[in-house]
Structure to design on (273 residues):
């Protein structure tokens, strides 16, 4: 395509895979993060000019703080950026400002930018069970959450990366909000059973009340504001906003979305030792 694509958060769960996918497809990529190939820091505007200069497309992962986003988008457009693909959260439109203010502002800012934009609203990632929130508890043999029997159609980050690469380089995606999920809905208890079976580990899922969950999070040393934010996240999830699978991944990529079982076999097989 002959253009430079800027990937923010290029060392993160989706960002590094987006970089890999774009480069495999032959694109010129500028991989930017606080500790990656090119330095970018949302809190340091002096790092912005160098990453946007000459870029024509941006994969944007918003910071938690919405304050710098509009200024960055404006600067990027002035530098010649012609399209944005924003990673957002599925169900964010039900959050009423209580969760994900950075994602909400990123969606708003690119829609008002005057250039092409696409929003990817994703479910919780399969890889949250291996690279983030729930990995350490699973290794310890106990995942305790306030979810009840509400299902979640977890999405694989490799699928997100492929969709991001497609929308960053392909035609027909401007102005679209794509909801990305896996192909089936599982409760957290079911997901834990899949991981336990594949890995050979004994892992218990424990159902907590919201108050019990907050107490455990605080006891682990997290700040009160983080405990409150996680509580809101699970409240939104318990409302069923992330339950029903979408067929967006399959429609866009022309293949079925990755199942949770496929992810588990790849990520957890042989980890019991």
């Amino acid at each position: 395509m002959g253009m430079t694509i800027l990937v923010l958060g290029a060392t993160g769960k989706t960002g590094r895979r987006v970089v890999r996918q774009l480069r495999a497809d032959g694109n010129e990529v500028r991989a930017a993060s606080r500790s990656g190939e090119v330095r970018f820091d949302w809190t340091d505007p002096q790092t912005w000019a160098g990453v946007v200069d000459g870029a024509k497309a941006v994969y944007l992962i918003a910071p938690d703080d919405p304050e710098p986003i509009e200024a960055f988008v404006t600067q990027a457009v002035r530098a010649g950026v012609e399209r944005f693909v924003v990673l957002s959260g599925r169900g964010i439109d039900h959050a009423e400002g209580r969760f994900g203010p950075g994602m909400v502002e990123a969606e708003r800012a690119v829609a008002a930018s005057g250039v092409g934009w696409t929003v990817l609203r994703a479910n919780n990632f399969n890889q949250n069970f291996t690279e983030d929130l729930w990995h350490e508890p699973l290794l310890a043999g106990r995942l305790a959450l306030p979810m009840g029997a509400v299902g979640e159609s977890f999405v694989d980050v490799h699928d997100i990366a492929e969709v991001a690469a497609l929308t960053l380089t392909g035609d027909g995606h401007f102005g679209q909000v794509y909801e990305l999920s896996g192909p089936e809905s599982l409760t957290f208890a079911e997901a834990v059973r899949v991981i336990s079976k594949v890995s050979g580990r004994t892992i218990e899922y424990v159902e907590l009340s919201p108050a019990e969950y907050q107490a455990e999070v605080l006891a682990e040393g997290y700040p009160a504001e983080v405990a409150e934010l996680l509580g809101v996240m699970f409240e939104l999830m318990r409302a069923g906003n992330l339950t029903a699978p979408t067929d967006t991944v399959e429609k866009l990529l022309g293949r079925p979305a990755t199942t949770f079982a496929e992810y588990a076999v790849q990520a957890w097989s042989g980890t019991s030792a």
User: Anything to note?
Assistant: The chain has a mean pLDDT of 95. The radius of gyration is 19 Å. The first strand starts at residue 4 and ends at 8.
